[in-house]
Design a protein that fits this description.
single chain, Metallo-beta-lactamase, Chain A, binds zinc ion, 5 helices, 21% helix, six-stranded mixed beta sheet, alpha+beta
């Protein structure tokens, strides 16, 4: 078994306006598998309901069966992040935004405090895109400290162009500015909701801090 938590991005997300259209947006989320050192397998953001077969195929290529998934996390409750959660009914917890459930039971967990999945993988609250957004912090991973943050970051390009995260909807812009800084502070790598993973540099942290100060 690997000595580090292994993060495998199964599918890179995307989002863009349909060419030659002004009212159709095309979008799917980044879907990530974490193979934990303690044998836990975690799936983060399960794409649209039409993507089940391709997720199963990608898991198979990584020698993971759907019944081997220990936790399902949807960073928030939008349809392109939750579509295939019901492929994973052996999971101990299904976490959709700040709602944690197993069958009809949920642990009393309010106000939100970091929720541990393993000793070095936890779910933290990152309000902004929605009021109940969460992110998965993976320490001791093949990417150092990685944060799988859903639509807190839409894609790397939204750092230079904040319109990219604002135009897809932000239910609390001030919190989002703040949580983007918070996540960049702790992350070596960020896996955004609709783009490729990117390395966090000091320049990125400084830019986000500047934006926070300007907009608070
Ligand atoms: Zn999204």
């Amino acid at each position: 078994m690997s000595k580090v938590n292994e993060i495998v991005v199964l599918f890179n997300g995307y989002s863009r306006l349909e060419p030659e259209s002004t009212d159709v947006f095309v979008s799917n989320c980044t879907c990530t598998l974490i193979k934990g050192v303690n044998g836990s397998n975690i799936i983060v953001d399960s794409m649209t309901p039409w993507d089940g077969p391709k997720i199963l195929e990608a898991l198979k290529a990584n020698s993971v069966k759907p019944e081997d998934i220990s936790f399902v996390v949807s960073t928030h409750g939008h349809a392109d992040h939750t579509g295939n959660n019901n492929l994973f009914l052996n999971a101990k917890w299904h976490i959709v935004g700040q709602c944690i459930m197993h069958q009809d039971k949920f642990p009393i967990h309010h106000p939100w405090t970091p929720f541990e999945l393993t000793p070095d993988i936890r779910v933290i609250e990152t309000e902004g895109h929605t009021l109940a957004c969460v992110s998965v912090v993976v320490e001791n991973s093949n990417l150092g400290v990685a944060v799988i943050c859903g639509d807190l970051f839409e894609k790397k390009e939204d750092i230079d162009n904040p319109e990219l995260w604002q135009e897809v909807g932000s239910e609390n812009q001030k919190a989002q500015y703040k949580n983007r800084c918070k996540v960049a502070e702790i992350a070596d790598w960020i896996i955004p909701g609709h783009g490729e993973a990117f390395k966090v540099t000091q320049e990125i942290r400084d830019k986000l801090k500047e934006q926070l100060i300007k907009n608070n």
